[in-house]
């Protein structure tokens, strides 16, 4: 019987068992759950060199941002008191 060692993504990319990677803005997870291999993919946002999962809130400069399914939204801003 063959042993599972990887998952195959929709674009035919090979994701090694136990790895979580980002390819083309999509988070790919290949892992063992109980006695089977589980493959998951999730959209991410990319901003200022970092990848964020859907629902993550983060700061870029003076803006408070949230990663949403349709992209990054500005939730607010941070003020800096002078002096």
From TrEMBL:
Abnormal cell migration protein 18-like fibronectin type I domain: residues covered: 44-81
Question: Pfam families per the record?
Answer: Fn1_2
**Name the record gives this protein:** ZP domain-containing protein
